[in-house]
Specification:
single chain, 221 residues, alpha/beta, Glutaredoxin, 2 domains, two-stranded antiparallel sheet, 7 helices, 8 strands, globular
Length: 221
């Protein structure tokens, strides 16, 4: 299993499959820059309503001050839609699909069915791998530790039931998004922020109201 990211220690390298825009890179090559990775799914309306526009704004205002923004598409559901091909269509043709298309059309944020703006920063696809091996006890324990905070308070029978539920859940996920998993992300949109020394400073899901404040602090360190 890949190293699990933790706040305050060196951020693990990104596990990536294909750069769709920009020069291929990784965290060890970005030391000296503050790094913002905006994590999204192609079939995620909220990512396009809030996260990506915010990332574009931050890129435009802070790139010259030492901020590197990377857009990383991932997939933890809707594997038929959150694909590399659909990411390529987004970057090269401004095309959106599925729920993203429906919601952006409802909000009148498309021009002739396409995004009216270009995404200016590098874009990459998370590495999505198909599970080949059986779920291990260690994987079950890791998932419980990350997601079920009151597990220790349950009795033996309840713990066995939880373990079986987790096993069933993990078995239902035929594909694993490697960076999404190694950073223990909870969904999309998510934000990964890394300082100039490569230390993970934030890993947030959903609205991140202090994002610009944190970036300003890190840029001036």
């Amino acid at each position: 299993m890949n190293q699990i990211a933790k706040i305050g220690i060196q951020a693990p390298q990104l596990q990536l499959s294909k750069w769709v825009q920009g020069t291929p890179t990784n965290l060890d090559q970005l030391l000296g820059s503050v790094v913002l990775i905006t994590v999204f799914q192609v079939n995620c309306p909220g990512c396009f309503l809030y996260s990506l526009p915010q990332a574009i704004d931050l890129h435009q205002r802070y790139f010259s001050k030492g901020l590197t923004v990377i857009g990383m598409a991932t997939a933890f559901e809707d594997f038929d839609k959150n694909t590399l091909d659909n990411l390529k269509s987004l970057v090269k043709q401004n095309k959106v699909i599925g729920e993203t298309l429906r919601v952006l059309e409802e909000n009148k944020q498309l021009t002739e069915g396409r995004l009216p703006y270009l995404i200016p920063f590098p874009m990459v696809m998370d590495r999505i791998t198909k599970r080949q091996k059986a779920i291990t006890d260690n994987e079950i324990a890791t998932f419980i530790k990350q997601h079920i905070s009151d597990y220790i308070d349950h009795n033996v029978q309840q713990k066995k039931h939880i373990q079986q539920q987790v096993l069933n859940y993990l078995q239902s996920r035929l594909y694993i998004a490697e960076t999404f998993t190694s950073y223990a992300l909870q969904g999309t949109p998510s934000y990964i922020v890394i300082d100039k020394k490569g230390v993970l400073k934030a890993c947030e899901f959903g609205r991140f109201t202090d994002l610009e404040w944190l970036i300003n602090i890190l840029i001036h360190e």
